[in-house]
Design goal:
Length: 73
């Protein structure tokens, strides 16, 4: 279960994102991750990303890194 887990995004390591839930969109048969940023200025905004994209790796200046890394809080 992903709900409640916290992650850092590679572009914004100073912000913590909390997974709200997993979502299935029937028309696409895709599983999506619904998450929010834990920041007062962005309070109330939620994001939706395909689970494969949420957990994939990105290449930045030739270095592979996870798009989201589990927060060790």
């Amino acid at each position: 279960m992903l709900a409640g887990r916290q992650y850092f995004h590679y572009k914004h390591p100073e912000l913590c994102y909390t997974v709200v839930d997993s979502v299935v969109i029937e028309e696409t048969d895709g599983v999506w991750v619904l998450y929010r940023v834990d920041n007062e200025s962005l309070k109330g905004i939620v994001f939706l990303r395909l689970i494969e994209s949420f957990f994939n790796e990105v290449v930045i200046t030739g270095k592979k890194m996870k798009r989201f890394s589990l927060a060790e809080i």
